[in-house]
Amino acid sequence: MIYFQIGLHHVLDIHAYDHVLFLMALVIPFTFKDWKRILLSVTIFTLGHTTALLLSVYEIMVIKANVVELLIPITILATSLFNLFTIGKTNRKENLNLIFLITLFFGVIHGLGFSNYFTTILGGTSSSKLLPLLEFVLGIEGAQIAVVFAVLILAYITQSFFKFSKRDWILVASAFVIGVVVPMIVENEIWNQ
Q1: Is the pLDDT of residue 126 over 70?
Q2: Is 17:25 a contact under the CB 8 Å cutoff?
């Protein structure tokens, strides 16, 4: 189960918090009562990054690491801005197919980020890559579930005990994510080339 542990650590690594930020941005607008929508969103995101991992590990799709490292924080920024611009709007629920399609695409981008890391630690033949890849994906999924629960618990505490309105929670939490991710975009090494 070494690859499971690597997958867990890769998401929860304090120095590589981009995946956690995306999950935060994805879950911020929801509460525990929205569990079906959260489950569907996170599953679609997982399908996207698992697909990208498979395509990359088997060298069907390869993309430069520095491009992916720029695209990942852009997906986080876009998701957080979407949260801000759709607070309290009823049409948010009407656009589910578009939201899920974008989530799938963002999952592919994040999966490409995982793939750069995963292919460096994985050796062997094509047939010997599948089991370690599945273990790695399960580790990532376990970490994602932990992050989702942590964000939902934080939202519950903030809204129940500190009496933040849902609107204020979304504003503050999304602004926090934006504040963390903008420097990641600005300081990306792609601008120094």
Answers
A1: no
A2: no
